[in-house]
Design brief:
The protein has 3 domains: about 110 residues, no CATH class; about 190 residues, Nucleotidyltransferase, domain 5; about 180 residues, Nucleotidyltransferase, domain 5 (2-Layer Sandwich), CATH 3.30.420. The chain contains 15 helices and 18 strands. A 6-stranded mixed β-sheet has the order 10-11-9-8-15-16. It has about 550 residues and is α/β, with parallel strands linked by helices.
């Protein structure tokens, strides 16, 4: 590390040697006098310099060089300091960041759980890109808010621990300007279909709870399936910087549209697919028009209600029960061998996705036994889909139009969690995924419990069924194949931010993604940056030549240096 050497007559250009606020700057001679104790000179004194006449020329050269550097360095540094480097923060007089951080809160009120995300971004970059970071994610205890249909006040109370945590993160003076949102997805969509009054009561209670905190609460709403898919697509591409990118020349540029990725989301009650098809979307009910950074995007998006993981597993068991002609004992090929449980009819048929047959008694007990048969498991899952499609029409399933998949895809939420448990999120081949899943689904319950002692019992029981469903949905449902499978990337985060609809939702509502191309964020135009660079280069060359000339003059003067 360089140190300051002012006492010896050499100045320093390092920022560590520059003026400290509150301390008066000293001249070269004053610094030397303060740093070196006074002592008698061994040389005869003259009226010019305290040194021998014999070494006068070299000392003059050395002092001249020192003075030049001492005078020129601060000027050069001051000139450079006036320039704002692209992406850098402005500094105040004490070298502290002048810009402050802004915050945003988004509740993801899903069907199985609720999570609060705390986002942060620099105030001076609010209209930029790639600057939002995730500070915290807090999982709310209990199930999703839709499960509080008969206890609406409990839904509001459940949010408070996470809100308390958020208030410890956001500075008190900024809390009242922090935009806060609650978005509910398929769980509340189902409750609204089932009982709109209860859905409104739940929303009233969660809104009341949030308003008790000093934040800028901007409302709670139920997202449509297409909105959920589109916002997830925005999140992924925003974080990957595939919509817009800041170049080293100080300009915003649009990357090639081919690198824009698709989004695959699997929640508890619904699943979404969103991508740029590259062709005209025939069914306008499955399209979303987005204008982002001056570019138009017409994306295909569709949400399948009742095809989320939680609802599919209920539908699967109900289907097996119906196939057994509603017997009291049901064999489940997706449950591990040796697993057995008793449930009531009311517990199984408790959702709009699984309506209870009129001839069944809600109190009836049903015994379910696992058989661990992967082939029969996949056959049972396939029966949940309707693959019929109209003539001259390409479909996903259930008669819904879908163009062929195109480009790279990011699969997140339950897509990621299921395959991550089986260590299948490292872009393995389809045959490797099939082999691993087949072996896992053939194992017995006792061995699984011994090998995964910390795994939640219900999650361990459902792992084969859930992962088999993921594979069936992607291959037979969304029409990926052996080749396009390799285009699917199973991810939980991008740039340390959880992937989901929440970030895209907040960016949209806070207008942080402008519809038009943003201006350059540097203060100096590009031409002035080039001029500044040339001026600096010339200055350094002149200083070097001056020092070299002085040294040559010393060598030719005939004086003997001390």
């Amino acid at each position: 590390m360089l140190t300051c050497a002012a006492a010896s007559g050499a100045s320093c250009c390092s920022p560590r040697c520059q003026r400290v606020p509150g301390v008066r700057a000293l001249s070269l001679g004053q610094r030397a006098a303060q740093e070196s104790p006074a002592r008698p000179s061994p040389w005869p004194q003259t009226s010019n310099f305290p040194c021998r006449q014999q070494g006068r020329g070299w000392n003059r050269a050395r002092l001249t060089t020192s003075v030049l550097v001492d005078r020129l360095c601060p000027g050069i540094l001051a000139f450079v300091g006036c320039l704002e480097v692209p992406g850098s923060a402005l500094l105040d007089a004490d070298g502290i960041r002048a810009s402050r951080e802004l915050y945003g809160l988004v509740f993801d009120a899903g069907s199985t759980h609720t999570a609060l995300y705390v986002y942060q971004w620099p105030a001076d970059k609010e209209n930029g890109t790639g600057v939002v970071s995730q500070v915290e994610s807090c999982i709310v205890n209990g199930s999703g808010i839709s499960s509080y249909a008969d206890n609406p006040a409990g839904a509001g109370a459940s949010l408070k621990p996470c809100l308390d945590k958020a208030m410890t993160i956001i500075p008190a003076q900024q809390q009242r300007e922090t935009p806060t949102y609650l978005g509910a997805t398929a769980g509340m969509r189902l409750l609204r279909e089932q009982n709109s009054t209860k859905a409104e009561q739940v929303f009233a209670e969660v809104s009341k709870a949030i308003r008790e905190y000093p934040v800028d609460f901007r409302g709670a709403q139920i997202l449509s399936g297409n909105e959920e898919g589109a916002f997830g697509w925005i999140t992924v591409n925003y974080l990957l910087e595939t919509l817009i990118k800041y170049s080293f020349t100080g300009k915003w540029t649009h990357p090639p549209v081919e690198i824009v990725v698709g989004a695959l989301d699997l929640g508890g009650a619904s699943t979404q697919i969103t991508f740029l098809p590259g062709t005209t979307i025939d069914d306008k009910n499955t399209s979303a028009f987005l204008r982002l950074y001056g570019t138009n995007y017409s994306v295909y998006t569709h949400s399948y209600l009742c095809y989320g993981q939680k609802e599919v597993l209920k539908r699967l068991l109900a289907s097996l029960h119906q196939d057994s002609l509603y017997a009291q004992h049901v064999s489940h090929p997706c449950y591990p061998k040796g697993y057995q449980e008793n449930i009531t009819i009311a517990e199984l048929y408790d959702s709009p996705c699984v309506p209870i047959p009129s001839m069944l008694s809600p109190a009836q007990i049903l015994t379910v036994t696992g058989t661990g048969n992967p082939a029969a498991c996949r056959t049972a899952i396939l029966k949940l889909f309707n693959f019929t499609c109209g003539a001259n029409r390409t479909c996903g399933f259930d008669g819904v139009y879908q163009p062929p998949v195109r480009g790279q895809f990011f699969a997140f939420s339950a897509f990621y969690y299921n395959l991550h448990f089986l260590n299948l999120t490292e872009d393995q081949s389809l045959s490797s995924v099939n082999d691993t899943l087949w072996k896992f689904c053939s194992r017995n319950w006792m061995t699984l419990q011994k090998d995964f002692p910390t795994r939640n019992r219900i999650h361990l029981r459902d792992s084969c069924a859930a992962s088999s469903y993921v594979l069936t949905l992607l291959l037979q449902g969304y029409k990926f194949d052996n080749k396009t499978w390799l285009n699917i990337h199973f991810r939980k985060q991008v740039s340390n931010v959880d992937v989901g609809w929440t970030l895209g939702y907040m960016l949209n509502l806070t207008n942080m993604i402008p519809s038009e191309m943003p201006q350059r964020v540097v203060l100096l135009p590009e031409s002035k940056w080039i001029s500044a660079t040339v001026i600096l280069a010339v200055l350094f060359v002149l200083i070097f030549c001056l020092i070299a000339a002085i040294c040559c003059w010393k060598d030719s003067s005939g004086y003997e240096s001390l």
